[in-house]
Amino acid sequence: MDVKEKKSLEVTVDKRHIVSIGERLYAESVELLRELVNNAYDADATEVRVEISPARITVSDNGTGMDLAGLKQYFIIGSDEKVVHSRSPRFGRLRIGQFGIGKFASLAAASRFELITQHRDFAARVVFDKKAWEEAKDEWHIPCEILAPDPRRGDGTSVILSGLSKSFLVEDVERKLMESVPLKAPEFTVYVNGRRLYPRSIIGRRIPLLEGTKYGPVTGEIVITPKSAADFKDLGIEIKVRGATVIKDLFGMETWGKAVARVKGEINADFLPITSDRSGFIVDSGEYQEFLKIMEKVVGVIGKALGKEADRSEQRRASRAVNEALERIHKALARNPDLSPFGPIEYGEPGEAGSGAVIGAKGKALKEAEVKPREAKAGKEAEGLPKRKKKRHPLVKRVTPNAIVRRMRMGTESVSVCLDFFGPLGPECFSEGNVVYINRDHPLFQRESRKAAAQTMHIARLVTQEISLMKETRSPRVAFSRQSQLLKDAFAEE
Predict the structure, then answer these.
(1) What is the CA radius of gyration of the chain?
(2) Residues of the domain holding 364
């Protein structure tokens, strides 16, 4: 570009913010790139490109750019321009920046800050030098070159950082931008070294949030991820103001142990007052205190959801354990017909006679039987066989809705097994007729349920104990001997 004229821009320093400028402004050097990208968003850019190399970093956008008045405003530290004009002119975006000092975050990592901007028929280049900043007191002038506009370039702004004193890893920059710039906003894309960034997608159970306050709405979504997706390196819920993440917080959930690694999500509260370096909130403000009350309720909802999920998980584990235990016991009884209290038992592989021995609570076989009901009925009618009188199954008394009930066929009879909650001081197990009740609250059941194999063995031990007592009621010693034989054959292959 040809230089048509040279000027200087006066930089006015607001003493309220002077202590925040420079190397004390941001704890992480990658945060300055966040500020530059968010500035592009505020300027109605639809595309931002970040190029990182060991020697320099360039952040270019196709926003509205700045004219001379805009440049002067840009270098007023602590300006309330974005507060007064909180919406962008083209897309009506709620502007992220509030204090106008994000640009000076470059002092933490670079000695030279070069800005090239173009707005319609105006173009200019400004060079901001760190050494000049250090030598100045309350104000100083920055060289500004008025350039001939480049029609090929179009409107927009580029910031070039050179003289880097800190290194930037592309992975760190991508991570920071993905969590702290509004990538979900329409017509806004960000590229890092040519690679487009997308907002992170989290799988899991979703809990929507919509709460009203006198300061404004609190919206968002909490996600409880599967255990396999738990992330211990990235803990906390993202708290966003105007689409950008300010902090991640656990809100007291740090005492939950491993479960807290499954809690993700984001909360939007645009009314929250943030600190000048955008690293946190003004915690003694009325807005933040109101926000905390809402988050207390949210944490309670999360806790209940995790508790219910734990209950469902325990229910599935117990169901699998009782199914396997009864299948093993049925095989053992087929091998030892003299140990069955109801006579010989037929047993075969799936598809053979005797399969489908374990029946669910609603009468559904857990293994497919060889003959379907209609085929069996047709066969009997063809052979002229008499219809077998339907047996009444033992009545199971449920104590709680979460009781697990399974029925095991034993010849023409059946034994029902009910896993239910009878209290930690209740019996370990007991029988009523052909129904075996197992206490899930019993300390031994709780202990053995930590591992699947141990839980299966524990249920098998209790069921065989009660079946053996059904066979032999006079001599506990004989009953114990029968139980030992059944358990041995049930787990013989192991």
Answers:
(1) 36
(2) 311-490
Q: Could you give the count of Cα atoms lying within 13 Å of 388 in the half-sphere of its Cβ? A: 9
Map residue 100 onto helix, strand or coil: coil
Query: What is the tally of structural domains in the chain?
Result: 3
The phi-psi region of residue 196 (left if phi > 0; otherwise alpha if psi is between -120 and 50; otherwise beta) is beta
43 plus 177 within the same structural domain: yes
Alpha-carbon distance of 186 to 90, in angstroms, equals: 13
Q: How far is CA 111 from CA 23, 164, 374, 401, in A?
A: 11, 7, 86, 69
Considering the domain architecture, whether residues 210 and 277 belong to the same structural domain is answered as yes
DSSP 262: G
Give yes or no: residues 139 and 221 share one domain: no
E strand or H helix at 143, and its extent?
Answer: strand 139-147
CA distances from 150 to 116, 117, 124, 213, 339 (A): 11, 10, 11, 49, 96
Q: For residues 329 and 408, is the Cβ–Cβ distance under 8 A?
A: yes
Q: With H, G, I as helix, E, B as strand and everything else as coil, classify residue 246.
A: strand
482 Cβ partners below 8 Å, 6+ apart?
A: 339, 468, 471, 472
Residue that finishes a domain, picked among 244, 265, 282? 282
Sheet holding 429-432, edge to edge: 358-359, 404-410, 413-420, 435-439, 429-432
Residues of the chain scoring pLDDT < 70: 1, 10-29, 77-84, 97-105, 107-108, 134, 136-140, 277, 343-394, 493-494
- Is the separation of the CB atoms in 64 and 42 below 8 Å? no
Question: What does the chain come to in residues?
Answer: 494
- Secondary structure of the chain: what % helix, strand, coil (to 5)? 35, 25, 40
The answer to whether the beta carbons of residues 25 and 277 sit under 8 Å apart is yes
Q: Which residues pair with 404 in a beta bridge?
A: 419
Dihedral sign for Cα atoms in the order 183, 109, 88, 180 = positive
Determine, yes or no, domain membership for 219. yes
